[in-house]
Amino acid sequence: MSDPRTKSRTALAVAAGVALAAAVAILSSPAAAEAARKDAVQTRAERGKYLVSAMGCNDCHTPWKMGANGPEPDMTRMLSGHPASFKMPPAPASQGPWLWSGAATNTAFAGPWGVSFAANLTPDKATGLGGWTWAQFRDSMRNGKHLGNGRDLLPPMPWMSVAGLGDADLRALFAYLRSLKPVENRVPAPIPPK
């Protein structure tokens, strides 16, 4: 006569094997693989949202407006950069201890480098990061060059600090920026110093 404990262990092992085989079959299906990929991208984008908030990207890349308690970011234009419709007069000259100045929108800055305008970070293909590849974004953040190999990124963009992020965090930033609502807004080109 066989031991009842052996029968129970055998039944448990068979049930576990069937469950494992079913799980592998389900998870290896194209639909399950796509769902797992979407979950990973969502988690990455959530990390990117945290980084954008912690690093203060909205401080310069989201136009500011006057609110009930003073200046505040206009979140209807979140991360869309300097408003194309907001034409800037010539920048004031740097004098004495006042080395640089900023526009009321907090998206245009003047200093010894000329005039810089905060970029549109939304995924708009024509005016934002929508046409950028991961490699262009990574290289731009690592070496301070537009599109990874173009003109210098200008102050006050803290690219030297962002360059210290690992690839996982840069991928998270890129994933989050790609998840935003595209905003069509062609930011002016920088103006060189006189």
Number of helices: 6
| Rg, alpha carbons | 25 Å
Chain-averaged pLDDT:
87
Biggest β-sheet description: 3 strands, antiparallel
Which structural class matches the secondary elements?
A: mainly alpha
Helical content, roughly?
Answer: 40-55%
Coarse morphology? elongated
- Count of spatially separate domains: 1
Distance between the termini: 99 Å
β-strand number: 5
Strand content: 5-15%
Helix and strand element order: HHHEEEEEHHH
Order of strands across the widest beta sheet?
Answer: 3-4-5
Oligomer category: single chain
Low-confidence stretches: none
The gist of it:
With 194 residues, this protein is mainly alpha-helical.
Structure characterization notes:
There is one protein chain. With 194 residues, the protein is mainly α. The chain has one domain (4-179). 42% of the residues lie in helices and 9% in strands. α2 packs across α6 and α4 (134-143) crosses α6. The longest helix has 25 residues, at 30-54.
